[in-house]
Amino acid sequence: MAAAYRCKSRLLPGDLDDWTVGLGTVVRVAVVGTGHVGLVTASTLAYLGHDVVGLDNDPEKIRLLKAGTAPFFEPGLEELVAEMKATGRLTFAETVEEAVPGREVVFICVGTPARASGEANLVAVETAGREVAAQATGRVLLVEKSTVPAGTARRLKTTLLRERPDLQAEIGVASNPEFLREGKAIDDSLRPDRILIGADDDWAFEMLRKLYEPLTAQGVPLIETDIATAELSKHASNAFLALKISYANALARMCEKAGADVLAVAEVLGSDRRIGRAFLNAGLGYGGYCFPKDIQAFERLAGSLGYDFPLLTEVVKINEQAIDATLDKIRDALWNLEGKTVALLGLAFKPGTDDVRFAPALALASRLIEEGATCVGYDPEAGEGAAREVPALTIASTPYEAARGAHCVVVCTEWDEFKTLDLAKLKEIVAYPIIVDGRNLFDYDQVELAGFTYYPTGRPPRV
Ligand code: UGA
Predict the structure, then answer these.
(1) Which of 80, 10, 7, 9 is nearest to 39 (CA)?
(2) Which one in 54, 143, 173, 296 has a CA-CA gap of 20 to 30 Å to 412?
(3) Which of 435, 436, 441, 395 is nearest to 414 (CA)?
(4) 288 contacts 349 by C-beta, under 8 angstroms
């Protein structure tokens, strides 16, 4: 092991500044796909001392990365990429020909979007695998990081060997699912709860152990399984987290009817260590590029394997009802929506990201607009993306600008900056003093003191 490398707190969010990792034996890595998972994987592996090339078939992304700009917002990422480029351990390439020859491990981090049926579309995974196999020189391990249904690696290997039977002894496949969250991606990658490796031969396990040695040496648990188990575990994790959120949202509906308080219920449940408090926040529901597609894909996988998994259908249904419930509160507060203006605070699918894919805020905006309301939205990072997705939504440049003249202010994403809004000032500029809190961001006292009528989620309203 080479000299210890110390994280710089300037670069890394969270409490990583006291996290010292050693540089491991250098592995030559290529990462196909420089999206949220791929770019974070590439830069954090370079951080661990490996020689990494990031590859993308979108030339614009590579152009931006070469010029030093991250193609999306992720706290600390642009700085980390810049620092890793400066060490020479991280480079970017546009073509497989340029990137793959001489690499020992190639990560596949391409998208696995949902088909209309809900099934995962794996065309990009297959294409990436074939392109890598065509350019491989020497022994290479293809590692799936993208979330894929159990059985994908087996299919991939069969397909590749059909095309390159000469590579029988050269090509290995493995699964190393990524558990990072957007907004906390670097922290999650460098200090994960666990690293999961699914493989079917010693060489693949050895390569991946070597790759993550700087982290396992610090005590990060490593779980080794067969490939299908690793693939399935990733879907199972995301589905379980979504299930927890939907459970909290179902409780919110119950609490609303019973006059109980879902926040207190979540505290009671969460204080039981067998349950845990995380992911029990009721609100507008889950969104983003992962949960909605992964739950559908997992359910489809179950079906294709001959197992009916209706629990997952219910999770999705309850998530959709979370939007309906918020809409009901707005209707209850405003009566007719035609001619009314609704201000939406927060448009990203969660705080800490500019990602608006499957954002509940945008689903709500579309429903409000359909019903005749005018919608003005504000988000610290996601305004541009939101405007592209919902052109009829007006984007404001401050929360106050969004709220000016609004008949109702709806909290859709719990960005920290909303917690410290000057509610007295807000009250002066709105048309009606009504807040619908889709994320239970505010305290009763805070909003009451400022003179607002308040509709939280799963808690009694103050009208
Ligand atoms: C999720 C998983 O948390 C990661 O472990 C996984 O690696 C990733 O998907 C993936 O498969 O790539 P992410 O989509 O970044 O990560 O976001 P989360 O922080 O999990 O939040 C997902 C959604 O759930 C957000 O819309 C959030 O607002 C919502 N949520 C979360 C709630 O509504 N309530 C909660 O209590 C927690």
Answers:
(1) 80
(2) 296
(3) 441
(4) yes
List Cβ neighbours of 71 (8 Å cut-off, separation of 6 or more). 34, 39, 60, 61, 64, 65
What is the tens place of the pLDDT at every residue in 353-389?
A: 999 999 999 999 999 999 999 999 999 999 999 999 9
The predicted pLDDT at position 170 comes to 87
Q: Report whether residue 247 contacts ligand 1, using a CB cutoff of 6 Å.
A: no
The alpha carbon of residue 211 and the mean position of all alpha carbons in its chain are separated, in whole angstroms, by 24
4-6 and 20-22 strand pairing:
antiparallel
pLDDT in tens, 286-323: 999 999 999 999 999 999 999 999 999 999 999 999 99
For residue 287 and ligand 1, the question of a CB distance below 6 A is answered with yes
Active site residues: 290
CA–centroid distance, 179 to ligand 1, in Å, is 10
Gap from CA of 320 to ligand 1 centroid (Å): 16
Give residue 16's pLDDT: 53
Alpha carbon distance 18, 9 (integer Å): 8
Please tell me the predicted confidence (pLDDT) of residue 163.
81
pLDDT tens digit string along 412-423?
999 999 999 999
Ligand 1: centre distance to CA 454 (Å): 27
Contact between 202 and 62 (Cβ < 8 Å)? no
82 phi/psi in degrees, rounded to 5:
-60, -45
pLDDT for the residue numbered 9: 35
CB of 283 sitting under 6 A from ligand 1: yes
- Phi first, then psi: give them for residue 131, nearest 5 degrees: -65, -40
Out of 238, 265, 318, mutate this one to test ligand 1's pocket (max ligand atoms within 8 Å of CB): namely 238
Which of 109, 235, 241 to mutate to test ligand 1, by most ligand atoms within 8 A of the CB atom? 241
State yes or no: pLDDT of 8 exceeds 50: no
Ligand 1 touching residue 182 (CB < 6 A): yes
Say how many Å lie between the CA of residue 252 and the centre of ligand 1. 19
**Interatomic CA distance for residues 365 and 389, integer angstroms:** 10
Residue 325's φ and ψ, nearest 5 degrees, are -65, -40
Here the tokens at position 344 are: 């939406």
CA atoms within 13 A on the CB side of 254: 11
Name the pTM for this structure. 0.93
Name the average pLDDT for the chain. Answer: 93
Q: Is 286 in the pocket of ligand 1 (CB under 6 A)?
A: yes
